[in-house]
């Protein structure tokens, strides 16, 4: 690689994400779709946690995006509904790459939420339906008892999706690609746009 040139091409950022994501799938030992999701309260108090990417591409929504699912009554769900903006971070150590994505959120349709919820293993459906995510739990057995009660109530087939279990689409206004280089002379390129249908602009950033 020529150290005097950027390793990050000027191209469509969705296409570049797809390329990097595909390469990460070949080398990451666990969950290449794992991403850090950062949210904040209306007062600006931040919170971050790992979630899984469950849909992405330029054809999603009005201007393309990245989809994840969650319990909307969890801490992150409450923060999202109070402040419909978030940031994502992918870190693929095997590839020595990171991608940061920022933008507003919209909730997926009930049909989309149903389809994804029922695509999950039955045990995962039960675990999600039984959980008051982020709420205090007196002891683990209480949760396990709720799981057992749902298994008994629904002995076969899909579990009804709880109405508060849903998904969100982040429509990016900024996507930044980071590539590790020797001696911490890293390579960064940031793509930005004003709205979902606007053209992307880009610039290199100092590391």
UniProtKB/TrEMBL annotation:
Lyase recorded as keyword: no
Binding residue positions for substrate: 54, 116, 120, 124, 184-186
Pathway noted in the entry: Cofactor metabolism; pyridoxal 5'-phosphate salvage; pyridoxal 5'-phosphate from pyridoxamine 5'-phosphate: step 1/1; Cofactor metabolism; pyridoxal 5'-phosphate salvage; pyridoxal 5'-phosphate from pyridoxine 5'-phosphate: step 1/1
InterPro entries: Pyridox_Oxase, Pyridox_Oxase_CS, Pyridox_Oxase_N, Pyridoxamine_oxidase_dimer_C, Split_barrel_FMN-bd
Transmembrane segments: none
Residues annotated as domain Pyridoxamine 5'-phosphate oxidase N-terminal: 26-151
EC number: 1.4.3.5
Pfam families in alphabetical order: PNP_phzG_C, PNPOx_N
Family: Belongs to the pyridoxamine 5'-phosphate oxidase family.
Protein name: Pyridoxine/pyridoxamine 5'-phosphate oxidase
Species the sequence originates in: Qipengyuania xiapuensis
């Amino acid at each position: 690689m020529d150290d005097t040139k950027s390793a990050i091409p000027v191209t469509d950022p969705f296409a570049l994400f797809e390329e990097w994501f595909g390469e990460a799938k070949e080398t990451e030992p666990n969950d290449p779709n794992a991403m850090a999701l950062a949210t904040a309260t209306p007062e600006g108090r931040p919170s971050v946690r790992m979630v899984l990417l469950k849909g992405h591409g330029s054809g999603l929504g009005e201007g393309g995006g990245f989809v994840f699912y969650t319990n909307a009554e969890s801490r992150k769900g409450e923060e999202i509904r109070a402040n419909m903006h978030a940031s994502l971070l992918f870190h693929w150590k095997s590839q020595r790459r990171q991608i940061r994505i920022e933008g507003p959120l919209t909730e997926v349709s009930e049909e989309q939420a149903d389809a994804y919820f029922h695509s999950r293993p039955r045990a995962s459906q039960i675990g999600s339906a039984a959980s008051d995510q982020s709420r205090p739990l007196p002891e683990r057995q209480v949760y396990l008892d709720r799981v057992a009660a749902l298994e008994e109530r629904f002995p076969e087939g899909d579990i009804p999706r709880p109405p508060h279990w849903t998904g969100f689409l982040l429509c990016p206004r900024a996507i930044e690609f980071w590539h590790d280089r020797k001696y911490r002379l890293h390579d960064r390129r940031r793509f930005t746009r004003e709205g979902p249908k606007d053209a992307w602009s880009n610039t290199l950033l100092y590391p």
